[in-house]
Amino acid sequence: MGKLTDEPILKRIYDDLIEGQTPVDNYVGFNLKFLFRDIDNLTQFLKDNLTNTSEIKRYHKYFFIPMIERIKRDKNFSLAIKELLLSSNSMGEKISYYNLLSQINMVDEDVTSWKNGITNFKNDFGYDIVSNKTVRLKDVLHDYYY
Questions:
Q1: CA–CA distance from 91 to each of 20, 124, 125 (Å)?
Q2: At a CB cut-off of 8 Å and minimum separation 6, what does 139 contact?
Q3: Hey, which bits of the chain come out as E strands?
């Protein structure tokens, strides 16, 4: 059995969706998005939504599982998230990107070095895309909030 992205019917549904010809619910839409969209589009989705957390909180139940599945199977997507983590200045982005990488066991030497370099935990509250709530960076880095 091939990959889902090789299935012609799914590709046709996705293409129709993009062209606005096929109405779909949020579950289907986000599943197709995380199956077929390129990494630039997906990282932009993350960046845009982590700056507008009211939107992301509302749609979390639709996109979270397809997003995690794509991150697990797409090494380039997980590497792009790692790059976003290492270059981010936003508390919510740091929390979310780190926790995403942690969820798929991608905390490597670079990420551990980044983590160990964080010593200031004042005002370290931000949105966490994994738990879909506001948490402390300190708690996410040290697994305190589970």
A1: 35, 6, 7
A2: 145
A3: 125-128, 133-136
Residue 4 has pLDDT above 80, yes or no: no
pTM of the model: 0.86
Q: What amino acid occupies position 108?
A: D
**What is the reported pLDDT for 5?**
60
Q: Do 50 and 127 touch, CB atoms closer than 8 A?
A: yes
Minimum mean pLDDT among 25-34, 91-100, 111-120: which range? 25-34
Q: How many helices (H) and strands (E) does the chain have?
A: 8, 2
Cα(83)–Cα(77) distance, integer angstroms: 10
d(CA 30, CA 86) in angstroms, rounded, equals 26
**Whole-number Å distance between alpha carbons of 5 and 36:** 7
Which phi and psi angles does 8 have, rounded to 5°? Answer: -60, -35
